[in-house]
Amino acid sequence: MEFDYVIVGAGSAGCVLANRLSENGRYRVLLLEAGPRDRYPWLHIPIGYAKTMFHPKYNWRYYTEPDPGMNGRSIYWPRGKVLGGSSAINGLIYVRGQPEDYEHWAALGNSGWSWQEVLPYFIRAERNERGQDHFHGASGPQGVSDVGDPNTLARAFIDACVEAGYPANPDFNGESQEGAGPYQLITWRGRRCSSATGYLKPAKGRANLFIETDAHVCRVGFAGRRAESVVFRQGGQEKTVTARREVVLSAGALQSPQVLQLSGIGDADLLKRYGINVMLDRPSVGQNLQDHLQVRVIHQCNQPLTVNDDMRSLWRKMRMGMQYVFQRSGPMAVGINQAGAFLRTRSELDRPDIQFHFAALSADLPGAPLHDFPGFTASVCQLRPTSRGHLSIKSADPMARPEIHPGYLSTEHDRRTVVDALRVARRIAEKPALSQYIETEYLPGEQAQSDEALLEFARDTGVTIFHPSGTCRMGSDEEAVVDSALKVRGVSGLRVVDCSIMPTLVSGNTHAPAVMIAEKASDLILAEAKSLTGHTA
Ligand SMILES: Cc1cc2nc3c(=O)[nH]c(=O)nc-3n(C[C@H](O)[C@H](O)[C@H](O)COP(=O)(O)OP(=O)(O)OC[C@H]3O[C@@H](n4cnc5c(N)ncnc54)[C@H](O)[C@@H]3O)c2cc1C
Question: For the chain, does the N or the C end have fewer beta carbons within 10 angstroms?
Fold first, then answer.
């Protein structure tokens, strides 16, 4: 029961660490995951997204507290609970963010995190089917593929953006993110390439890598101020393992802070309220919560070109199944969102501040049953919200859910941006390339014209686009939770490596950045081991 490294959580980041830290064969590495193995077939078929969105076995299925910015609604926050974590159930989009995001992290005092310093880790991770170039890798564990045969409406959306004056962009992860184009996906040969598939599968035969599933971590144990053990529950039993070198928390932006608080690191008053011994009074644990709020503009289509139509027709469903089984292609091979755009709401801005996800389908909520009319959705989110939320434990019971306050639309800047974003969505839909397919605007609906009405629409219908981050903020100031080596400040032998360390949310989807963070962390950890022992890492 002794290991060199104990990693908590086998998600986008945790699987990367498990692979890299066990690669040289020198260290005994234990990976603890609360969820089960990823044997369910729909976890691997791209369109299976809808099947796992509410699945009780593979999804934590969190709800936020009623949020004032959302007119008091609780918002559904799915999170992966399985090998692969959220990368096993996510929408597959491969986006890294903007170089300025990482320049900003570095400017905040986080040395080593500038764009030029993180780009090599994105490249090292990537196996892009387009091949290698200055921005892309072709031999890493993370498969990245094109949407082979995009839906007619996805192409029409891109053309409409161009008609509206925005540039076309075939590669959001290349020279510039700005413009409209097709997304690349974390798929390989028509199958999802989660971090479990890309990183864990090739490593799991190693004699020095141990993977425990259905192992719910309760807390980290300390000897003085040094993290030295991890306590977890498995099969109704409480078990303790020892970490000779380090414990690494990769439980995600909702649960890494939860495990810290359960281990006595957090706001002292909060911990005392629940009878938890205070190891370190650090009120910033669980603060700085940031997320992308998506607001969905839905149009009724005048032709049966949508996935809504595919799913109503037995013949089309059979054709989709055959295409997938025999050619690994067709709608089942490419998830939900096929096209997107990174645009500026105002021309005087120096970089895109909103992102579109375009899907040739429509439903009342992501993952809910599709509408019984032909419909398509242009979902839009603000890339760098200034609103901040927070989360905390609400019980000393490690199995209890954290209390999540997203704080959506709590700043005037964000309220302004969401209204502007909805107006951009309408401007694109008016262009001939897309308007030729429109019967009517279903949501927000033509009655919603004033700024007030559009804001109210956002408050009434906005939902997460699933990117919570920032709750164990990296920084060089006294309040930061981790330093730029991702070590928890004030104790030793403990790091956090996942989306929670982001000081500010990146301008895009968060899986690729989580993988990059873990790739970089693995180098930091191995370099430190090397300097301590003199071994080659
Ligand atoms: C529905 C959905 C759609 C998304 N779509 C996209 C997309 O298209 N593109 C994109 O880039 N991003 C997308 N994201 C976001 C992206 O997948 C996440 O930001 C990313 O996977 C987070 O990585 P992580 O390593 O921080 O956490 P996770 O991948 O969530 O991993 C955390 C892991 O820790 C485990 N865990 C938690 N608590 C404990 C505990 N106490 N003990 C043991 N194990 C524990 C969890 O079960 C999980 O496996 C989406 C997310 C969701 C949920």
Answer: N
Domain termination site, one of 428, 444, 461: 461
In a shared domain, residues 317 and 427: yes
Is residue 535 pLDDT above 70, yes or no? no
What's the gap in Å between 514 CA and the centre of ligand 1? Answer: 9
CA 303 to chain centre: 33
pLDDT tens track for 59-78? 999 999 999 999 999 999 99
Q: Which of 400, 429, 461 is a domain's end point?
A: 461
On whether both 230 and 157 belong to a single domain, the answer is: no
pLDDT at residue 537 above 90? no
User: Does residue 115 belong to any structural domain of this protein?
Assistant: no
513-522 pLDDT, tens per residue?
999 999 999 9
Radius of gyration of the chain (CA): 22
Distance, in Å, from the CA atom of 404 to the CA atom of 390, rounded to the nearest integer, reads 6
Cβ of 301 closer than 6 Å to ligand 1, yes or no, is no
Test site for ligand 1: of 218, 466, 516, most ligand atoms within 8 A of the Cβ: 466
Q: Is 242 in the same domain as 208?
A: yes
**If you measure from the C-alpha of residue 249 to the centroid of ligand 1, how many angstroms do you get, rounded to a whole number?**
13
| Whether 378 and 280 share a structural domain | no
Domain assignment present for 329: yes
- Name the residue at shortest CA distance from atom 50 of ligand 1: 90
* Angstrom distance (rounded) from CA 136 to CA 195: 18
> Could you read off the pLDDT of 280-315 as tens digits, one per residue?
999 999 999 999 999 999 999 999 999 999 999 999
Q: How open is the CA angle 153-154-156, to the nearest 5 degrees?
A: 60
Residue 134 placed within a domain: no
104-112 average pLDDT score: 98
Which one of 510, 516, 517, 522 would you pick to mutate in the ligand 1 pocket, going by the greatest count of ligand atoms within 8 A of its CB? 510
Whole-model pTM: value is 0.98
Whether 467 is catalytic is: yes
Model pLDDT, residue 190: 95
Residue 33 in domain: yes
Number of helices (H), then strands (E), in the chain: 14, 25
Ligand 1 site, residue 499, Cβ cutoff 6 A: yes
For ligand 1, the distance from its centroid to the CA atom of residue 360, given in whole angstroms, is 25
Residue of 357, 405, 467, 511 with catalytic role: 467
Percent of the chain with pLDDT over 90: 94
Nearest CA to ligand 1 atom 49: 85
Q: What is the signed CA dihedral for 521, 523, 527, 533, rounded to 10 degrees?
A: 90
Compute the distance from residue 252 Cα to the ligand 1 centre, in Å: 6
Q: Are residues 305 and 284 in the same domain?
A: no
Q: Which structural domain range is residue 431 located in?
A: 148-182+293-382+409-461
Distance of CA 519 to the CA centre of its chain: 16
Domain count along the chain: 2
